[in-house]
Amino acid sequence: MAEIEGTTRRPTYRYVTGGTLRFGDSGAVTVGAQAVTVGRDPSADACVADPSVSALHCDLRGTSDGVVLRDLSSTNGTLVGQVAVREALLVGRCSIRVGNSELEFQPAAPEIVDDGEPIDSFGPLVGGSSPMRQLYKTLTTIAATDLSVLITGETGSGKELVAKALHEVSPRRDGPFTVVDCGALPSGLAESILFGHERGAFTGATEQKTGAFAQAHGGTLFLDELGELPELVQPKLLRALADHSVKRVGGSQYESVDVRVVAATRRDLRRAVNAKRFRDDLFFRIAQVHVELAPLRERVEDIPLLVAAACRRMDRSDAARRVAAYIETRFRRHDWPGNVRELINVASVLAALGDDDVEDMLPVEQGRMNTGSTTSAAGFVQAKKEFEEAYFRRLLDTTGGNISEISRRCGLARHQVRSHLRKLGLMQ
Fold this sequence. Notes:
Blueprint: E1 13-16, E2 19-23, E3 27-31, E4 36-39, E5 46-47, E6 58-62, E7 67-71, E8 78-80, E9 83-85, E10 87-90, E11 94-98, E12 101-107, E13 111-114, E14 121-122, E15 125-126, H1 130-142, E16 149-152, H2 159-168, E17 177-181, H3 190-195, E18 196-197, E19 209-210, H4 212-215, E20 220-224, H5 234-243, E21 245-246, E22 255-256, E23 260-265, H6 269-274, H7 280-286, E24 289-292, H8 303-313, H9 320-330, H10 339-353, H11 377-399, H12 403-410, H13 414-423
């Protein structure tokens, strides 16, 4: 990818301060750049055999500033000394209390962590910042395996693109990439959508149907918004992952499936495990590898590259420098709550319409942009609606209604494109 003016190059390494966490009579784990989980569950990195400790109680992660300790909505809380904390930065030796157990943390000298080659993209992913290079290294390492992967990150940060990138560099690249939006699964049909059904299995089942697992045979099954999966389906999903076989609703025989499962969620499933809303055994089965996607505000140096990519999708590469300069000036203090999706939408508007008198039409979350604009909320909502309708009409016209192509050009997932089109009355 050509370098865009304004792009900041970071070195390929960084310093991370970690340490050692001691627990029990002789247990110890090293804390580094990867998160270390403390809990009662045997699958926790630091397993504390104490009934007052939550299944997944807290975690620790090394950063350049020190070790970040986070409580995971535990039942009895996490204390540093005598202070209960939700999140704390550990910079010296200290005692950590979880339930009735005492842990000892000893910091270590900072270590150099190599972020890999200074590249700007990886498949459909764009960005050359340290968090993105770390992500590329992880995806390269796990690509050849069949380990299940859990991708976490805020809405709009690009979790589906991570799943696609992993699929495209894996040995399964020639197989199907099947997407299931767990947040849109009707509770009564979730099992059928995932595993299929036999004819006559329930009212309306007029023919045999193949489920998502069978459709993804030989490829990758992407379960988006896994945190929204109905609780009644969770044990059946666990069995499918453990046994590599599924049974259609109304059927009597299990059939083998060769599928790699990649899941994503904007929720912290470890907190959901503690709250008994998500099965702990399913969490550990599906999170054999945990990939956390950094929000855009933590990798703002990627903005010029992302703007250039958005302009290419609009066939307006010539506008990339102008759009990047406008965003740098007008959005300098914006925290991008919609992440990459919000940036792509803003860049698309600016590329299509120019930057004169378009501020009221920019698809930016109201109240989160510090630009001095005094536009009323009602005016913003109406302008946003008018822009979206014109924008999607243009995409429908130029793509001949091809949903996959619209998805590629606007940076939204296919189900999100359909949702927008239905909301705007442009699709039944």
